[in-house]
Amino acid sequence: MQATARAQPNIALIKYWGKRDVARNLPAVGSLSITLADLYTEMDVRFDAALASDKLTVNGTDNITMLPRISRTLDSVAGANRLCARVASRCNFPVAAGLASSASAFAALTVAASSASGKERSIAELASLAGRASGSAARSLYGGFAELSNEANDVSVTTLAAAEDWPLRVVVAITTRAAKPVSSGDAMEISRKTSPFYQRWVDEQEQDLAAARSAVSTRDFSDLASIAEHNCLKMHSVMWASRPPMVYWNAATLNCLQTIRELQAEGVAVFFTVDAGPQVKAVCTAEAEQRVCAALRATDGVEALMQSGLGAGAGLISNQSRTPA
Ligand code: PMV
Questions:
Q1: Which of 1, 63, 120, 192 sits a CA distance of 20 to 30 A from 178?
Q2: Is the distance from the beta carbon of residue 4 to the nearest atom of ligand 1 less than 6 Å?
Q3: CB neighbour class for 70 (10 Å; exposed up to 12, middle 13-18, buried from 19)
Q4: pTM
Q5: Does ligand 1 have an atom closer than 6 angstroms to the CB of 315?
């Protein structure tokens, strides 16, 4: 009744922002992302008849804030009549600060809980369950370049290119380690209800997806850069125009964008994207990586850098649910 899974965060190049069905956590728009290789969450799930309630530790410390969401996910994966579970999460990067920690956490949780409860499920089924917990988590079941599409009552994810087909690099500039003030789930709802730009954002998403899909299929870095930056700034414009406004950026976020603009002017193959947090993700070619790192490290307000290649989707590390004969 115990299993451990590992999942990597993914970074959306064409973003998910807004829900069409809050109860089922279905996104209002499709999205396209890259799954990372070197940042990860590992999740142990152990169902235990001796427990009276679910328990969660994150990096060795008891955590009650995330527990209700974890319990709901365990219910949907293992069934509401499941045993209580001890869940231990380990993450090698800052959580809840705009680094897609919920994507890797809920992807790993879904894989581990499904295995520990003895259920055989396809990747598509696991992605759908992970997506109920965190919309972006569905994409972390898949490696490389993944596109999430809306179906009538669900989501489906396809791999557009494997990590090794276009081995881009990602440099994350950490501008603060503080947790974000408003969760992305709450912020999306505020945007949907109040931002004058929200409907336009939804209406234009299909054309942004088509442009990114085409750039991925032809491996056209500058086309991908152009549509990814545009889509990112559009999403943040929706947030900034919401009431209350949602501004996740800090001064160092803007400094990093300026650094990336300067690198681009020098012909360096790099572009930025920013999620619901103040960290800047610089996507670049392997040849550009050292220059991108040097420039971001020298940027005012940058606390640390993390580097990663692109990697595979979530997977099981171990399973001890078989009863010995
Ligand atoms: O999956 P959530 O609810 O944490 O939302 C993710 C939202 C963004 O990271 C801003 C965009 C995305 O597509 O990942």
A1: 192
A2: no
A3: buried
A4: 0.95
A5: no
- Give how many domains the chain has, as a whole number: 2
Same domain, 153 and 30: yes
Provide the residue type at 143 as one letter. Answer: G
pLDDT digits (tens, 9 = 90+) for 211-267: 999 999 999 999 999 999 999 999 999 999 999 999 999 999 999 999 999 999 999
31 lines ligand 1 (CB under 6 A): yes
As given in the structure block, the two tokens for residue 251 are 């001064």
Our answer on whether the CB atom of 273 is closer than 6 Å to any ligand 1 atom is: no
Q: Which of 107, 137, 164 is the last residue of a domain?
A: 164
Q: For ligand 1, atom 8, which residue shows the shortest CA distance?
A: 275
What is the tens place of the pLDDT at every residue in 268-291? 999 999 999 999 999 999 999 999
Residue 56 sits in the same domain as residue 78: yes
Burial tier of 169 (Cβ tally within 10 Å: 0-12, 13-18, 19+): buried
Evaluate: CB of 184 within 6 angstroms of ligand 1. yes
Q: How far apart are CA 220 and CA 269, in angstroms?
A: 11
Within-domain flag for 255 = yes
> Which ligand 1 atom is the nearest neighbour of the CA of 276?
10
Q: 135 CB under 6 A from ligand 1?
A: yes
The verdict on 249 and 150 lying in the same domain is: no
Strands ordered across the beta sheet of 10-14: 10-14, 31-35, 145-150, 155-161
Asked if residue 144 is part of any domain, the answer here is yes
Q: How far is the CA of 44 from the centre of ligand 1 (A)?
A: 24
Whether 16 is in the pocket of ligand 1, judged by its Cβ within 6 Å, is yes
Can you tell me which atom of ligand 1 is nearest the CA of 275? 10
Same domain, 256 and 160: no
- To test ligand 1's pocket by mutation, which of 10, 14, 15 has the most ligand atoms within 8 angstroms of CB? 15
- Please report whether residue 64 resides in a domain: yes
How far apart CA 225 and CA 231 sit, in angstroms, is 10
Q: Which domain holds residue 190?
A: 166-309
